[in-house]
Specification:
Distance between the termini of chain A: 15 Å
Number of domains of chain A: 3
Shape of chain A: elongated
Largest interface: A-B, 33 and 33 residues
Helix content of chain B: 25-40%
Strand content of chain A: under 5%
Oligomer: heterodimer
Shape of chain B: flat
Number of strands of chain A: 2
Strand content of chain B: 5-15%
Radius of gyration of chain A: 30 Å
Number of helices of chain B: 1
Structural class of chain B: alpha+beta
Chain lengths: 320, 57
Amino acid sequence: MPDPVKPPAFPDERAPWPGPFVRYDLVKELVVALGVVLAVVVALTVLFSSPDEPPVTIQSWSKAAPADFLGVAVSELNRTSGVATYGPPYNEGTGSVQKIGPISLQEAAGVKVPIETAKDYVLEPLHEVPGAPRLRAALAAYEQAPAALQEKWAANYEKALPEARFVAGVPVLPPGRYGPVAPMMASLLAMGQSGALDGALLAGGHHFYATDYTKPLLFVSAGEYFEKLAEHQHLLGTQWGMMNETGSYPGQVWLWLFSFWYQVEPFKSSSNADALIFMVMGVLSLAFICIPFIPGLNRLPRRLGVYRLIWRDHYREVES
Amino acid sequence: MTGTTPLGAIFDLNVPAHYLSWHFIQISVPNFVVIVLMIVVFVAALLIPFPKREREP
């Protein structure tokens, strides 16, 4: 066997390979790798199955927590909900607009998914209920009333809601000046509990394929019911929820750094946390991509010497 | 409808997970297990020797 020759620091890439050759069957390796992965997937499926959390729908929410549902519905009608005041991409509000210094990417992108909460979540779905002359009369009375009176009715209803009782599923509030809002909310609750509101919000865009869950998701997520379910499953942002999965399944471990920033100041208490963390992660990702060009950091692999551990046989042979 | 009941997994993971807490750090046991397994695979990849093959001259 010839003596190994120490390779030059910068070999001529055009020169023929001076070292030894090894037989290598790429197709065989591919087939073996696919076979092994398939066997592991089948074994893990049999052993652990997959997450099977029942979906939270407007129907399940309005049945389990009707008062919470009505609270959200009346705030959508009165345009005081989180979605109604959110800002871009849903409307021109400013309630959840985030900035990095003077720059707001959210505002720059503009309103791309317009949502008018009173119309989209309450009035339009109620107009789709067939028959129901009392509901028709209530809707007409509400829509013809001045805006100030509409707000007053909805505000009165919202204020009295904590004292509401439910008799055979129908909300009964203490006597008060709720105008047509009370029968409208009772109809919307019935619609929600029947499952019709899920369909109405999905088909709101009148597209043939109803796959846009934006409206029902925003509606459900405004309630305390949904937040408590998320808290129980450790899925809130304050619980490193981005990393977690429902049940006892492993989650998105690779999102640890994104989740980390939300747990520490100044991001934890900042109303611009999303925008700031987006920027921090952008800068860190750029730095990571540029490691080969950053003096000092680009010498790290040589200093750590992990490559010598991987190719230890080669280096032992070369240095002996 | 017992004839259509699907078979369950051998280990049912559709139950709430346990969580490890240390100061502000919270991690689920399943995520912790995955991280430990990744470290084990990384160390194994470093330490397990390459299979020896016959070299051609």
